[in-house]
Structure formats: C-alpha cells, structure tokens
Amino acid sequence: MDTAIYIFSSLLIVISFIPLIRNDYWTFRVFEYPRLQKLVLTSLALFLLVVYCSRTTAFYIYISLLSGTIVYLLRQILPFTALGKKQVLRTKKDIPDQKISIMISNVFEDNDNYSGCIEEIKKANPDLLLLLETSHEWMHKIKEATNAFPYRVEQPIDNTYGMLLYSKYELKDSEIKFLVEHDIPSIHTKVILPSGQVIQVYAVHPTPPVPGENPRSTERDKELLIIADKASKSKIPVIVCGDLNDVAWSYTTDLFLKTSQLLDPRRGRFFLNTFHAHHFFMRFPLDHIFCSTDFKLKKMKRLHHYNSDHFPILIQLQYEKSANLEQIDHTLELNQEDIDLAKEKKERC
C-alpha cells in the first residue's frame, strides 16, 4: 500500500510542475489543462498518505512535497474563483446602443444535431455569433437560424477548422486570414455598434498540441501572439473570441494577455469550463472571450451543448470608455523575459 501511494504521489507532483518547462512538445503542454483535477487528486494523495503510510523519513518528505504542490495549484486556480481580483468590472448602468452580446459555439463537425444548434442560437439571440468546426454541410443545415443575421463572414472547411461569423450589427473591413497554417483560418473584422462606436473583433481557432494532429504547441502559440500583437496596436476597442485550444491559466494565455493588454472577464468569477461536455471530471476552459479595457460585463453564461463536445458560451459586454483601467494588475505588464519569449515564439514555424 505504501509503495502504491508513493508512486501515485510522485506522478502527481511531476505532472503538476512539468508545465513549468518551457517546451512546446505536447507532453509538456497537455498537463497545463487539468489544474483543478490535479488539485483534487493531490489532496486525495495527501489524505491517503496521512491515513495509510508509516511515519518514515519518506513520509515526511512526501507530506512536504504534496503540501507544496497543493499550495502551488491553489495559487493558479484562485484567480478564477470569487476570491480572485476581477479584471472586467460589472456594469452598473444600461446603455442599450453600446451593448454587444456574443455567442461562441464549437459545433463538433461530426455532430449532426443541427436542430439543437438552431434552438440554442434562437434562445440566446446574440448580436454576434461565432460557430467553429463548421463544414459546408453545417453552414447549409443551420440557415434557418443564421438567416436572421444580415452580416456574415463565412469560411466553411471540411477539416474541423471551418469558421462562420454572423452579426446583426454592420461589419466593416472583414478579412479571412491564414496567419500560420494554410488551412487554419481566422476572421478579422470591425463591428459597428448601434451608437456608431467601432470595435475590432478577431475570431480564432488554432490547432491544439495533441498527438495525431499537432505534436507541438508552436503553431497555436504563434497565432495567438500574432493576434495579441495586432490587438495591442489597435486604436479602437478590441474583442478576441474563439476556441483557443488553450486553458485560461497557461503561460501562453498569460503571455497573450500581457502582450495584447486585453482582459479576461472570468477572472474573479469562475472557470466557465467549455470542454469536454460529456465528461464531467475532464472539463477545461478552452473557449474564450477577451476584451480591451473599454468594456464592462453585463452577463456571461454557459449554454446547452446539443451533443457537441463543447458547451457554447454567451457573453454580453457594454462599451464604456476605459472602464477597467483601475483593474489592470501589474502582473499583466511585460518583463524582458516575456518579451524575449514572445519574440521567440513569433519567429518559429
């Protein structure tokens, strides 16, 4: 029993700290995802150690190691709970012509529950709708819902990286770009709010670091940092949305936020896990909406998954000039190490 508990504890300690190694290979990056799961299992290992193991030197060493691991994981998780500092403040007044509601849904290309998707779109009634993993068939099957949107940018692809963007507000200077990989699109467009305020929207869905698809995170990280650079140079408010195939607490997402100077509305609130919809214990926040300091939050929630492996999310933001400047944490400031890392990643591929 003692040996099994020590082996179990050793594995948990290793996978908790292995993401600190700045290597793009999937075996290092994938362990960034299950942070809450690692906390639960490490707490279990500590409990088993105390209850079942003999009080030897190894016992006290592992008590210290597991306790330190729990403290480390808690520090990474707490910013995404009500105990953390909010980056995006909640609005206290209603300005109807400066609001925008955005729905993001990775439909899962092999999913054929088109009616379920249509129903969710109609119930959410967003101003801006982003659908991912959309094939040509998906684009045609859901026209009953998308015909309600007068403005659109459509790039269906039958490779699980199709992308459809629909809007009730006027779109301007819309472009489909293939920033890193020739078959992985992103949508860049300006959205004009009813008030006349123009905002820049970037919709992205880079490849994940998983075996069989892309063994390294290099392409994903590079695309995110290219978008971050564009966001930081924008003269108008910015929203970045999509399935980033990265968790909210990874060092790449942290670098993205520092570089772009965008804010995460989940911080100080909740995880808003969106994947995997069918496996309760293996859920991570992979679908994101980041915004510049000019927005406040009206509401944010998770929707029904209609057999997709992702939950859709709906967020409503309100434009209020420099609404969150007082909330920008010093941890979002780039240091020289961050600058060097960002430069290195953007020069790869």
Provide structural commentary.
- With 349 residues, the chain is an alpha+beta fold.
- The chain has helices spanning 2-17, 26-29, 35-52, 57-77, 114-124, 136-141, 143-146, 218-233, 251-260, 336-347, and strands spanning 99-106, 128-132, 151-155, 163-167, 171-177, 186-192, 198-204, 238-243, 287-291, 295-302, 313-319.
- A six-stranded mixed beta sheet has the order 3-4-2-1-11-10, with no helix packed on it. Strands 5-6-7-8-9 form a five-stranded mixed beta sheet, with helices on one face.
- The longest helix has 21 residues, at 57-77.
What is the gist of this entry?
This protein is an alpha+beta fold. It is built from ten helices and eleven strands.
From the structure above, extract its key features.
349 residues, alpha+beta, 6-stranded mixed beta sheet
Number of DSSP-assigned strands:
11
Q: Specify Rg, calculated over alpha carbons.
A: 21 Å
Major beta-sheet overview:
6 strands, mixed
Kindly state the mean pLDDT as a whole number? 92
Strand content: 15-25%
Class derived from helix and strand content: alpha+beta
Distance between the termini: 48 Å
Low-confidence runs = none
Helix content: 25-40%
Secondary-structure blueprint:
Layout: H1 2-17, H2 26-29, H3 35-52, H4 57-77, E1 99-106, H5 114-124, E2 128-132, H6 136-141, H7 143-146, E3 151-155, E4 163-167, E5 171-177, E6 186-192, E7 198-204, H8 218-233, E8 238-243, H9 251-260, E9 287-291, E10 295-302, E11 313-319, H10 336-347
Parallel strand pairs: 1-2, 7-8
Antiparallel strand pairs: 1-11, 2-4, 3-4, 5-6, 6-7, 8-9, 10-11
Helix pairs in contact: 1-3, 1-4, 3-4, 8-9, 8-10
